Amino acid sequence: MAPRTAEIIAVGSELLGSTRTDTNSLYLAERLSALGIDLRIKSVVGDEREDLATMFRHAFGRSDLVILTGGLGPTDDDLTRDVVSDALGLPMTPDETIVTKIRGRFERRGMTMPEVNRRQAQVPRGAVVLDNPNGTAPGLFIDHDGKIVILLPGPPRELQPMFELLCAGPLQDRASDERAYRTSIFITGRGESHVEQAVQPIYSRWRDANPPISTTILAAMGQIELHLVLRDRDEARGRASLERARNELLAAIGDDVYSTDGRTMEQVVGDLLASRRYTFAAAESCTGGLLTSRLTDVPGSSSYVRAGIVAYAYEDKTALLGVPKAMIESDGAVSESVAVAMAEGIRERTGADVTVGITGVAGPGGGTDKKPVGTVVIAVIVPEKPVYVRTYSFIGGRAMVKFQATQAAMDRIRRMLT
Amino acid sequence: MAPRTAEIIAVGSELLGSTRTDTNSLYLAERLSALGIDLRIKSVVGDEREDLATMFRHAFGRSDLVILTGGLGPTDDDLTRDVVSDALGLPMTPDETIVTKIRGRFERRGMTMPEVNRRQAQVPRGAVVLDNPNGTAPGLFIDHDGKIVILLPGPPRELQPMFELLCAGPLQDRASDERAYRTSIFITGRGESHVEQAVQPIYSRWRDANPPISTTILAAMGQIELHLVLRDRDEARGRASLERARNELLAAIGDDVYSTDGRTMEQVVGDLLASRRYTFAAAESCTGGLLTSRLTDVPGSSSYVRAGIVAYAYEDKTALLGVPKAMIESDGAVSESVAVAMAEGIRERTGADVTVGITGVAGPGGGTDKKPVGTVVIAVIVPEKPVYVRTYSFIGGRAMVKFQATQAAMDRIRRMLT
After folding, report:
1. Is the preceding peptide bond at A161 cis, omega within 30 degrees of 0?
2. Residues 231-290 of B with CB under 8 A from A
3. pLDDT at A353
């Protein structure tokens, strides 16, 4: 049967703590979406047999595909295989070819396979074993009662190639001919309620269209995202509707849209720099190098990112960037004149075409009545345009202020280069 | 009744996409743990009435406390209030004081309250309304059949103060006198299997102790975490057992442990720099400013972080850091001599006490047979010690290589200053 709906259950008490997120589910969500399978629910369950059994039974009852990640290790804590075989009434038998493979992995590292690892060779009746080239735990693909259950190991570098090579194909073969089409619009520079006001009349009309388009508005740090989804059997018709809806939304929002193809702000700015053959350099204070780091997260960014100088201390703003000491004393380190002098200083020192100066109060300390925490001054220089400088007030903690400042700086470059 | 077990249900189709993580559950996991309440399951459910109703009924059936986040907005998609009141059989009535508050919020911004917002004033019978100073959606606290259900809005800046001010107290009052005590050990510089080998005999003994201590080993990017948890009614006894177990583990792992109190690597290094009154500056190439940015994520870091120079291009390594052009040509930009010259160059230019030079191949392009992707050279200079330099080979994609390089650089500073 073609799986239309899916659930993901991540197994492991450690994933319930405050220090870890379940990154596998993000990857799987994207892959399922590409396969036209709706993800309905995702959950994280600790290493408790009863909880996992209940969650799995309910998931199997209501969805066509259940993917369980983690809990396939050799120890008593690793319950996933047992729970699934119990719930589906599939007895398990050991598979000696798996034992041989696991033993080989240990031997190649000069070690002896501990006996506990034999647990990993238990296979429920009828399950297809999914080879794991990057770890000891094999995965399992179970086609049962017209539904599919997939068990994958927890480490992303094991899970991802296994899903790609061994699961995506069989799921694709079974997939329905109705596909989900998605598009997104990323916006920065205006608040959520203003975006909502502008777009609500448009998306409510498309929601009632045939086929309907559902829209989600997402306010993330420093940006608003509109996600549009449509399901259709006819690809040409589906894509055309989606594009019309997207174009209406774009017309309503205008140049606050920075991306319509899922590219991040750093990719958008990087592509603009690359297409104009401009080089880039930043002079950062309160953002501490985050702007340069974000821009260099993009593969290939070494072709346009020249350099960055983080001048946290006053004397380094003078020594490294040539900001006049008298200017810092008279105007303050967080001032429009200093931000411009930083952008000019890095331009002189690197010869980069596009430069930025950022100075501000990231907090939690250092705020004053006139320049409270969140005050950030951004100067941007691009060829053949007047120097841009503006004082922003950002809300939130230190990390949020840093991020929003880098977002605003990149958005300004984008607007000046577009 | 004292809630011992909890579940978190995050509501919203957007949280099922590949671009967003449910950060609220990380915050709530930490707060519940501090209150001695076990988090058993957390889930994300889309805006589908039936799915949410099923998940809520099961969660309410098996756990003492259910926290639902999101889905409290004014639109038809916002189902949480309706589903909970239906499932518990509590009829809803409008609360005019809420309407007045919401209307006030709109009026202060010169706007008229849309009629749809009246939905947010619906209150199930017996529920305590939780005031939301940062948004329109009030929360709800429901004490029903000896269990507790809490509804909170999705945006973290609304949810967190509401939980802190309005939920933590009442939960604390109801909490059992048996508390969970936790400690963690953060390790870097050795692989997961080596850590496991060293600590397994110790933690398996404590697992069988009375009261037992459970240990979770977590391999995150560039670090291994051991999390120890013990539950006891007697705080002194509980803490003493936990400390003995922790000390045994510390003895077995030695100086690969960088933190035993939850501090991040950047905090640990920052505290070492501050306590020695040393200043810091970095010369970065492949990490693109991430090292300086991570160190400046720590509040108060401006007292020791002097400056950073990101020299991506060859000519900037020479112009900004004084790396001899001939050295780059003869040894290559990714070489131990260049890394040392970068660390020396930034030290000369800033006068900082502790300096780092990082150069490498972050990928995906740029690798060669001799210097494949993941090759990173790190040089560290601290007062009164010989210059340190080493060539590392990191695995993973661009972001992972960048992160691991900054982690290794900070760990080296830690070891050299300890």
Report:
1. no
2. 279, 281-282, 284, 287-290
3. 98
Low-confidence ranges of chain B (pLDDT < 50): none
Q: How far apart are CA A68 and CA A366, in angstroms?
A: 48
Does B101 contact A at CB distance below 8 Å? no
pTM attached to this predicted model = 0.74
Q: What is the DSSP string of A200-228?
A: HHHHHHHHTSSS-EEEEEEEETTEEEEEE
pLDDT digits (tens, 9 = 90+) for A337-372: 999 999 999 999 999 999 999 999 998 888 899 999
Per-residue model confidence (pLDDT) at position A177: 67
Q: How far is CA A329 from CA A314, A325, A392, B103, in A?
A: 9, 6, 21, 47
The answer to whether B217 touches B191, Cβ cutoff 8 Å, is no
Helix (H, G, I), strand (E, B) or coil at B126: coil
Q: Which of residues 198-227 of B touch A (CB under 8 A)?
A: 214, 216, 218-220, 225, 227
Q: How far apart, in whole angstroms, are the C-alpha atoms of residue A83 and residue A105?
A: 26
Q: DSSP strand E in B62-162: where? A: 65-69, 92-94, 122-124, 128-130, 139-144, 147-152
Which two three-digit tokens encode residue B72?
A: 């409290």
Give me the pLDDT at residue B415, please: 96
pLDDT in tens, A203-248: 889 888 888 887 777 766 678 888 888 888 888 998 999 999 999 9
**Are the C-beta atoms of residues A370 and A398 closer than 8 Å to each other?**
no
CA distances from B417 to A18, A290, B269, B380 (A): 30, 26, 9, 11
B55 touches chain A (CB under 8 A): yes
- Separation between Cα atoms, residue B104 and residue B117, nearest integer Å: 12
Bridge-based pairing state of the strands A354-360 and A375-381: antiparallel
Amino acid at B382: V
Closest among A195, A213, A192 to A204, alpha carbons compared: A213
Cross-strand partners of B219: B224
Is B292 within 8 Å of chain A by CB? Answer: yes
Q: Are B309 and A307 a contacting pair at CB < 8 A?
A: yes
Question: What's B254's DSSP letter?
Answer: G
Q: What angle do CA B183, B188, B189 make, to 5 degrees?
A: 150
Closest partner CB to A308 (pick from B27, B289, B297): B289
Residues in a beta bridge with A391: A377
Please say whether the beta carbons of B137 and B163 come within 8 A. no
Give B181: exposed, middle or buried? Use CB within 10 Å, 0-12, 13-18, 19+: buried
Rounded Cα–Cα distance for residues B355 and B306 (Å): 10
Q: What pLDDT score does A165 carry?
A: 87
Pairing label, strands B388-393, A388-393: unpaired
Cα–Cα dist B75/B275, whole Å: 53
Q: What residue type is B102 in one-letter code?
A: I
Catalogue all structural domains in chain A, each as residue range(s) with its CATH number: 5-174 (3.40.980.10), 179-259 (3.30.70.600), 265-417 (3.90.950.20)
Q: Is A317 helix (H, G, I), strand (E, B) or coil?
A: helix
Contact assessment for residue B67 and residue B8, using Cβ atoms and an 8 Å cutoff: yes
- Residue of chain A whose Cα is closest to the Cα of B77: A216
Number of helices (H) and strands (E) in chain B: give both, helices first. 14, 17
Three-point CA angle B245, B247, B249, nearest 5°? 70
Distance of CA B382 to the CA centre of its chain: 29
- What single string gives the DSSP state of each residue in B340-372? HHHHHHHHHHH--SEEEEEEE--SSS---SSS-
Whole-Å CA distances, A96 to A81, A113, A119, A230: 17, 14, 11, 47
> Hey, what are B38's tokens?
């076990």
